Amino acid sequence: MDTSATQQRLKWWREARLGMFIHWGCYSTLCRGEQVILRDLMPLHEYTKIANDFKPAKDWADHIADQAVRMGARYTVLTTRHHDGYCLFDTKTDGFNAVKTGPGRDLVREYVEAARKRGLKVGLYYSIVNWRWRGFWDPAGYPDDLPKIVQQVHDQVAELMTNYGKIDILWYDVSAVPGGNSPGSFGYQPSPLGPTSAEFYRSAELNAKVRQLQPHILINNRSGTPEDFGTPEQHVTADSDDRAWEACMTKNFAPNWACVNHSVADKSAGQVLFHMMDAFRKGGNFLFNIGPDAQGHVLPRDREALDQIGQWLKRNSDAVFTTSGDSITHGRGQGACYHYGMFTTTGTTAYLTLFFYPREYLVISKVGGNLKSASILSTGQPLQVQRLSNQRYRITGLPLKMPDELATVLKLEFEKPPHTLEWSGAEWLEGQLT
Ligand code: GLC
């Protein structure tokens, strides 16, 4: 359970709602996903060439931070090291980093500076696994690697927490224990070594040190200990026990987070909006991913969708940033008015984000609280509310042409906090539901 100190630290994050995830590294030069070293089974000497070919543009960090702002994100999370072990930051622990290879610069420094300049909170993604260790794949054959693997994680995380000023989020990824994987059967099976991730990587000690260096930091749940928030991936599912959670998602339906050349299976801006609002109504955050190109520039197809979301958020921000979930349907899949869209609520106000634009009228049903008035959020245009049988309300006056490019949001004012109308029996068939 979250303590009040945790709640205090989480306050800005819960209000921020939307973050932008950035999967970017030397693998971006190949434009076939972030796990290409393993998926294409590339020997180390081949992969090193890629790091030397990686030559990001000077303005990449500003460019990306501008995109986050245009999208309406309040924080960003950058892959400072993915499973390939390549560090975008300067590190004393390993020469396989951005300063010693192609870029010749500390890219994490450029990123944190660009984000801070725009008032974005700064998140650092860090993969605990590093596939470059022989001992990761073959612990029995390379036992000397094991303590080094753990020490490298502790040292690199300490560098990230020490050298870049205030860091708001530490976003760990995969903390699989050596020996649990093989290139043929890639999965995170329990390791034959025995210890859990938290035991092997000494995660409690690691995170205690992180919190000492960065007392305000938020840490996700992927180091083997629960920490501050959960991370459902590619789906929107609330964590149990009222724990804070953030759904992370790609635009691509296929399993790539870093850039790919010509993606045929992308979500439209409308689909992204759908998942985003689903996260917000269920009380979670939404971390939406981009995979910039090798230069560090946002792909035109991503830019278009993200800008559309940003435009929509500007016109409809109250439906997101003044609300903290949905008091009507409580995250249930098939709640009141679910065939129209999704509710977000605050006090006696409900916002209904419409996922289709009804012809002439729509009906608010199964919602108690006594509906008083309705309007279009983005334009302020008042709508007419007429009470019908079965405690329903017909809303009329919608303009013929949809007022918003993506989804239109209705603002509904109730007398009392709106809630699901509990009912049973057959009276509704006679129009007598009370
Ligand atoms: C999955 C992917 C990994 C990505 C991560 C983001 O674990 O395999 O590449 O970084 O999701 O949450």
The biggest beta sheet is recorded as: 8 strands, parallel
Structural class call reads alpha/beta
Beta content comes to 15-25%
In the predicted model, the low-confidence regions spanning at least 5 consecutive residues are 183-188
Total DSSP helices: 12
Q: What would CATH call the class of the largest domain?
A: Alpha Beta
CATH-defined topology of the largest domain: TIM Barrel
Number of strands: 17
Order of helix and strand elements from N to C terminus? HEHHHEHEHHEHHEEEHEHHEEEEEEEEE
Span between N and C termini?
Answer: 39 Å
What binds here, in terms of ligands, is: alpha-D-glucopyranose
Q: How many structurally independent domains?
A: 2
Mean pLDDT over the full residue set? 93
The CATH homologous superfamily of the largest domain is termed Glycosidases
Could you walk me through the main structural features you see in this protein, from its secondary elements to its overall organization?
By secondary structure, the protein is an alpha/beta fold. It has two domains: 4-316, TIM Barrel; 341-430, Golgi alpha-mannosidase II (Immunoglobulin-like). The chain is 28% helix and 19% strand. It is built from twelve helices and 17 strands. The protein has helices spanning 4-16, 36-39, 44-53, 60-71, 107-117, 134-137, 145-162, 197-201, 203-213, 269-281, 300-316, 318-321, and strands at 18-22, 75-81, 121-127, 169-173, 218-219, 229-230, 244-249, 285-290, 341-346, 349-354, 361-364, 367-368, 371-376, 382-388, 392-396, 409-414, 419-420. The strands form three sheets. An eight-stranded parallel beta sheet has the order 5-4-3-2-1-8-7-6, sandwiched between helices. Strand 7 (244-249), helix 10 (269-281) and strand 8 (285-290) form a beta-alpha-beta unit. The radius of gyration is 24 Å and the shape is elongated. It starts with a helix and ends in a 14-residue tail after the last strand. The structure holds alpha-D-glucopyranose. Residues 34-35, 173-174, 233, 248, 257 line the site of alpha-D-glucopyranose.
